[in-house]
Write a structure and sequence with these properties.
Order of helices and strands: HEHEEEHEHHEHEHHHHEHHHH
Number of domains: 2
CATH topology of the largest domain: Rossmann fold
Distance between the termini: 48 Å
Radius of gyration: 22 Å
Strand order of the largest sheet: 2-1-5-6-7-8
CATH superfamily of the largest domain: Alpha/Beta hydrolase fold, catalytic domain
Oligomer: single chain
CATH architecture of the largest domain: 3-Layer(aba) Sandwich
Length: 420
């Protein structure tokens, strides 16, 4: 702090005080309100520099609708810091060590020698952790009492037997950014395990460090609800996992007939800033396509050439919005016409729904956009992150086929209509 200006030092030191004064209308460690019905379950994977706490707004909103949310904290060194707890009271004066803490490892966000291999290693750890978490949920649902290692939270973890809905295809799988990548690779790795050989050549590797248990294999079905929030495409391009990249998400194998009343079970929620970013916009079709191998993805050289035409990311986004708005209505008419001709006049529901939240940026999915709204607005132009959180939660509930509460705001209703 010694080399910083006095006003900047004061501003940085005031951040913890600001966060301490932030209040949320919740009860601390409140018991589950069980009414005899099984609770729907959502498993969530965070992105880079994230933790189990960085998406509390969205998960809290879902929990208020009765969803049992489990936020995993990955120890693949993609998070800012993860504490390894042993159940004993931690002293504030005790310095963290390599045995008690897992620190962030800086890896380039661009494709350079060795980068994709490092991301593959992280994905292996992340998928292993998700598999272990699923087993822990099974034990909890069987009535087992699990020891709570967090000294700040009293008591062990237990609940009545059968409180969670762990029926095949019932778990909601969600992730943000690198967490979205993790969910994609988990679903594909487990779903296609034993069905086909995912290794296209001798250099291909498996992201599964161990065989998935039969219960997890049965859990992941074409009808499993999936919520991908700004999924990060770059790690999917690894030459060691080409077999996974060429395979579609399991939802494309769902049997969908005409006039289906239920919504799509898989959703992709894109923040507007990310959606209009040239690289992200080019890669999204490969994530949601029923035939990813047929999608031509923009090369790094093409992306850099296109981006050089604009003065800044915001300049690109603003001009991209205008250009797409001018052609969106005609494109929609053409798509609708093609669908009607293909289905003989009957529109068939897609297994994946894609949404773009207006006036939002990549961090809107996390708590940062809510806690530091003026900073995010000044840098990215983000507006009304509370509304974005509410509508993201509503779209996830719809994908899972869960009941929605009434909208009590004209503004929320208007934005939700724009999403539909």
């Amino acid at each position: 702090m010694a080399r910083l200006n006095r006003w900047l030092t004061s501003m940085l030191l005031s951040v913890p005080l600001f966060l301490r004064s932030t209040m949320m209308p919740v009860y601390d460690d409140a018991p589950l309100a069980l009414d005899g019905t099984c609770l729907p379950v959502l498993i969530f994977s965070h992105g880079l520099v994230g933790s189990m706490n960085t998406h509390s707004a969205i998960l809290g909103e879902l929990a208020s609708h009765g969803v049992f949310c489990v936020a995993l904290e990955h120890r693949d060194r993609s998070g800012a810091l993860s504490l390894v707890r042993n159940g004993e009271a931690e002293s504030l004066s005790t310095a963290p060590t390599e045995m008690s803490s897992v620190y962030y490892k800086s890896i380039s966000l661009r494709i350079r020698p060795g980068v994709l291999e490092e991301r593959d290693k992280q994905l292996q750890i992340r998928i292993f952790e998700l598999m272990a978490l699923y087993r822990a949920l099974e034990l909890l649902n069987e009535g087992e009492t699990l020891k709570n290692l967090a000294s700040s939270t009293a008591g062990n973890l237990s609940m009545p037997k059968g409180s969670l809905n762990l029926q095949p295809g019932s778990i909601i799988w969600g992730g943000h950014s690198f967490g979205g990548t993790t969910i994609i690779q988990l679903l594909k790795s487990v779903y296609y395990e034993g069905q086909c050989d995912l290794k296209q050549d001798s250099a291909d590797i498996s992201l599964l460090l161990q065989q998935p248990p039969p219960s997890l294999v049965a859990q992941i079905t074409p009808l499993s609800p999936v919520a991908l929030l700004d999924p990060w495409f770059m790690p999917l391009k690894s030459s060691s996992t080409k077999g996974l990249l060429c395979k579609p998400l399991p939802c494309h194998y769902a049997t969908i007939g005409p006039h289906l009343e239920s919504p799509s079970t898989a959703i992709v929620m894109s923040m507007e800033f990310a959606y209009h970013w040239p690289e992200c916009h080019s890669h999204m079709p490969a994530i949601i396509s029923p035939d990813p191998s047929s999608v031509r993805v923009q090369t790094q050289e093409e992306y850099e050439t296109e981006f050089k035409k604009f003065t800044s990311p915001r300049d690109f986004m603003n001009k991209s919005k205008k250009a797409r708005a001018a052609t969106a209505s005609q494109q929609q008419r053409d798509v609708t016409k093609d669908l009607l001709e293909k289905d003989g006049g009957e529109h068939q529901v897609s297994p994946i729904a894609s949404y773009v939240l207006h006036d939002t940026t990549h961090v809107t999915h996390s708590d940062f956009g809510l806690l530091f709204q003026w900073v995010t607005w000044w840098v990215t132009g983000q507006k009304n992150p509370e509304l974005a959180v509410q509508n993201t939660a509503r779209c996830i509930l719809a994908a899972a086929g869960l009941p929605l509460t009434e909208i009590d705001s004209d503004e929320a209703r208007a934005q939700l209509e724009r999403l539909s």
